[in-house]
Amino acid sequence: MLFKLESLLKLRRNQENEKLKRFAEVNAHLVKQREHLSFVSKMEQRNVQLLDKQVRANPDVNILWLYNNFFDGSCYQEECSKLIISEAEKKLETSIKDLTDAMRKRKTLELLKEKELEALKKKTIKQELHLLDESGSNLWTRTHI
User: Fold this and answer.
1) Vertex 128, ends 124 and 133: CA angle to 5°?
2) In sequence order, what are the residues at sequence separation of 6 or more whose Cβ sits closer than 8 angstroms to the Cβ of residue 130?
3) Taking Cα atoms as reference points, which of 81, 82, 77, 84 lies closest to residue 47?
4) Model confidence over 124-140: pLDDT tens digits?
5) 25 within 8 A of 88, measured Cβ to Cβ
6) Could you tell me if 125 and 11 are in contact, meaning their C-beta atoms sit under 8 angstroms apart?
7) How many beta carbons lie within 10 A of that of residue 12, not counting itself?
């Protein structure tokens, strides 16, 4: 006998898989943005050291102006990356909630399926025992009459 909610269970599994994919995409995006922020920070630190060398050696106004523009741009990139990371973290939290909800719904149906199969096994065993009892009583009646 097929589980009467099997199609719903398949639907729930598919929904869970879709939410798992979405979670993986959001998580990968978040990791990528964190790596980008780390890269921008490292580049900024490296250029601070290079600027110090330039200032000590030969403080040319054009070079200082270029470094100033670079640092302004890197600050802007850091702010943008932090904003994107914040939004990605919110999306990740939402996708985690969606995924856990989908997993809960699937698990509920799987438990129902297991209970139904267990009830079917018990019913089958009971019917088999009833048939064996009936066969045994018929055999006893034939041999003793």
Assistant:
1) 150
2) none
3) 77
4) 999 999 999 888 888 88
5) no
6) no
7) 20
Cα angle, residue 112 at apex, residues 108 and 115 outer, rounded to 5°: 140
| 31-49 average pLDDT score | 93
- For 73, the token pair is 């741009």
Q: Which two tokens stand for residue 68?
A: 């100033």
CA torsion 73-78-84-86 (nearest 10°) is: -150
Helix (H), strand (E), coil (C) string for 81-137: HHHHHHHHHHHHHHHHHHHHHHHHHHHHHHHHHHHHHHHHHHHHHHHHHHHHHHHHH
- The answer to whether 33 and 85 have CB atoms below 8 angstroms apart is yes
C-alpha dihedral sign at 97, 99, 105, 111: negative
The whole-angstrom separation of Cα 7 and Cα 29 is 33
Q: What is the pLDDT of residues 54-70, one digit of tens each?
A: 888 877 888 888 888 99
Determine the Cα–Cα distance for residues 20 and 37; give it in Å rounded to an integer: 26
